[in-house]
Specification:
By secondary structure, this protein is mainly α. It folds into 2 domains: 62 residues; 127 residues, no CATH class. It has 10 helices and no strands. α1 packs parallel to α9.
Length: 190
C-alpha cells in the first residue's frame, strides 16, 4: 500500500504543479528550458506511475474491502465508461466535442475515476480512483482560475468528431471485451 500511496503522491504531485504553483512551473521551464523541463517532468511522472502500478498490483494480494458494490453498479460503471474513450480522443482532435467539453481529457479522467469507484470497493481502488477524481476536479477548478494553453493535438478537421466517436467506441469495445482482462486480470463484464 505504501508504494501505491507514494506513487500517487509523486504522479499526481507533479501533475499538480500548475494547480498549486503555476508560477513555479513557469519559472522552472524558463530556467531549465522548455524541453529539459518536460523531460524532467516526464521522468518524475513515469516514476510515480511505476509506483502506482507496483503498489496497486501488490495491494491486490491482500485486499482491504471497504464496501461491496451491488452488481447493478458494475453495469452502471460499464455505461458510464462509454463516453470516456471518445472524450480522451477528443482532447487531441479539435472539433465540436472538444469545444463543448472544454477540457475533454479532464472530463474523461473524472468519468473514468467515478465509474471505477462505483464498481470497486477495495481500499486500493478508493485511493487510486478517488485520488484521480479529486485531482481532476481540482485541476478543472484551477484551469478556470488560471487558463492554460490548449493541449497540442492534430489540426482541426471536419472529421475529427467522427474519428473521436468511432475510434473511442472501438477502443471502449476492445477494452471491455479483451484488453481489460488481459491488462488487469479482471473482466469488467458482469
Amino acid at each position: 500500500m505504501q508504494a501505491l500511496i507514494a506513487g500517487l503522491v509523486v504522479f499526481l504531485g507533479i501533475h499538480s504543479i500548475r494547480i498549486v504553483a503555476p508560477a513555479l512551473r513557469d519559472a522552472l521551464a524558463a530556467r531549465l528550458g522548455e524541453w529539459p523541463w518536460k523531460g524532467l517532468y516526464s521522468l518524475v511522472a513515469a516514476a510515480g506511475l511505476y509506483g502506482v502500478v507496483v503498489g496497486f498490483v501488490a495491494a491486490r494480494t491482500a485486499p482491504v474491502v471497504l464496501y461491496a458494490p451491488p452488481p447493478a453498479l458494475r453495469v452502471a460503471a460499464l455505461v458510464l465508461m462509454v463516453p470516456v474513450f471518445p472524450m480522451l480522443l477528443a482532447a487531441y482532435l479539435p472539433g465540436q466535442l472538444q469545444v463543448r467539453l472544454k477540457h475533454p481529457l479532464l472530463a474523461a479522467t473524472k468519468t473514468w475515476a467515478l465509474a471505477h469507484l462505483l464498481a470497486n470497493g477495495r481500499l486500493a481502488d478508493v485511493l487510486l480512483f478517488g485520488g484521480f477524481l479529486v485531482w481532476a476536479v481540482a485541476d478543472r477548478i484551477a484551469i478556470g482560475r488560471h487558463p492554460r494553453p490548449p493541449v497540442p493535438g492534430l489540426p482541426a478537421g471536419r472529421f475529427n468528431d467522427a474519428i473521436a466517436l468511432a475510434g473511442g467506441l472501438a477502443l471502449y469495445a476492445a477494452f471491455v471485451l479483451f484488453w481489460h482482462v488481459r491488462l488487469f486480470g479482471v473482466s469488467p463484464l458482469p
